[in-house]
Structures are given as C-alpha cells and as structure tokens.
Amino acid sequence: MSEDILQRILAVKREEITALAKRHSRASLHGLADEQAAPRGFAAALSKKAAHGVGVIAEIKRASPSKGLIRADFEPSWLAREYQSGGAACLSVLTDERFFQGATVYLEQARGACDLPVLRKDFMIDELQIYEARAIGADAILLIAAALSAGQMGELAACATELGMDVLLEIHDREELDAVLDAGLLGRCLLGINNRNLRTFGTRLETTLELLPLLPEATDVVTESGIGVAADVKRMTDAGVRRFLVGESLMRQSSPAAALLRLLA
Ligand SMILES: O=P(O)(O)OC[C@@H](O)[C@@H](O)c1c[nH]c2ccccc12
C-alpha cells in the first residue's frame, strides 16, 4: 500500500463514517454492540496456541489493492470452517468494500460458521466503526499506526477494550514503534508488525526480525504479511515469534485447511 493509497482509503473511510452516522446514532450503535453475546477472547485463543507451538490468525481476504482478485470462489463460512480444521487460532476478516472487496456480512458469516474468535480487519479511525465492529460480532479490531496519531490510537484502543474486544496494533517501522511505546499502549494490545512496505507493496520478513530487538521483553508480537511457506514460519519461531497473520498464501490454495496444515508442519 503506498502512502497515497492509504490516504485514499482513509478519505473513503471518512465518507463511510459520515454515512454510518446518518444511519445510526452513537447511542443506537452502542446499544447494538451491548446486545451481542460476549466476545470470544481473541488474544487468549492466540496465546493458547502459541504456548504449544504456533498461533495463526488466518485471514479471509477476497482481493487487495496490490494483487487485485485473490480468490474467485469465495465463501466466508466455508473458508472459516477450513481454517478452523486446519488449526487456526483465530480469524481475520476484511470488511473494507472498496479496496479489498470485503463486507461486514462476511465477518458475520465466517464467525457464525465456526467457534474461533474473529478480528475485524478494516481501517478504523472513529469510535463509530468500533461500535459497529462489536455490533456485527467482532472479537477484536485492528488499529494501524500509520493511519492514526498516538492520541487516537489510545482513544480507539480504550473504546474497543471497554466493549470487551482485543486490539491488534499494527506498526511497520521504528517511528511507529516509538509512537506506540510513548503512548504506553504495548501492555494493552497485541503488537502486529506488518512486513509489507507501504510504498513498494513488497514484503520483507526482515521487517519483523529487525524491529524485534527494540521491543520490551515478553511483547506478544504478531508477524503480519508475506508468510508463504513452512520455512518462513521456522525463521520466525527461531527468532522467538510464535504469532502469525496469514492471508494470501492460504487464500490462493484450493484447500486452505491443507495449506495451513502444511504451513504448520
Ligand atoms: O496476505 P498476506 O501477505 O498473508 O497478509 C495478511 C495481512 O497481514 C494483510 O492483509 C494486512 C496486514 N495489515 C493490513 C492492513 C489493512 C489491510 C490488510 C492488511
């Protein structure tokens, strides 16, 4: 994602939030969020798998701005069951429509088809989106440091936590790490390190490996993007990283369950 595309996405998000605010008041969305059954415990499920090996957040992603359509035959409930039987700890579902061909209903379908906790993967910049996430059943949300000030990250993380959701806070460089550390957010969130370069779209697993020594000990790191084969997983576990977010390499296989089992072998 180039900086420009991130800015374009955020402009669309602002329009979507305006439209969302016309459909629902803050109080009514909060009410819908409160009506949901309790969240499934995203970070706990991930840690449980990581304690015995490797915890994978398997992603349901139909398309992306850099790759276009990733999977034509796309059925979120089937994919969720595949991922669960392949040993995923949690799911991530893209809900952005314009750039990733996602939908909120895909999250509802995926979550309804399995027992796994589900992260809403979207570009969250407003509390309304966080209420909406809980109202559709999300157990966790993503916050992207490149899209937010430290103050916004703190406010949105607090809002999610208050609703019982876990937060995956994503960084991709040292400046963003410093912002997250300065804001005192590390103890309260999972830390995602995105291996994708926002300018070139390329992925480099060294992004995670290079940032690791700068983290406080015992940080729960999730390495994100560009994990394709078992050797990538091995490289990360050798460095002490036991949590993974994997999308494209699983979505491209006819059996995502078999692909996940191979990745974990
Ligand atoms: O498909 P990959 O390379 O396995 O990556 C998954 C995930 O990390 C990626 O989809 C992602 C990471 N951060 C994001 C932020 C927005 C949209 C998408 C993403």
TrEMBL record:
Keyword list, A-Z: Amino-acid biosynthesis, Aromatic amino acid biosynthesis, Decarboxylase, Lyase, Tryptophan biosynthesis
Pfam hit, one: IGPS
One Gene Ontology molecular-function label: indole-3-glycerol-phosphate synthase activity
SUPFAM superfamilies: Ribulose-phoshate binding barrel (SSF51366)
Domain Indole-3-glycerol phosphate synthase: 6-260
Catalyzed chemical reaction(s): 1-(2-carboxyphenylamino)-1-deoxy-D-ribulose 5-phosphate + H(+) = (1S,2R)-1-C-(indol-3-yl)glycerol 3-phosphate + CO2 + H2O
Record carries keyword Amino-acid biosynthesis: yes
Pathway field: Amino-acid biosynthesis; L-tryptophan biosynthesis; L-tryptophan from chorismate: step 4/5
Keyword set includes Nucleotide-binding: no
EC nos: 4.1.1.48
Family recorded in the similarity comment: Belongs to the TrpC family.
Designated name of the protein: Indole-3-glycerol phosphate synthase
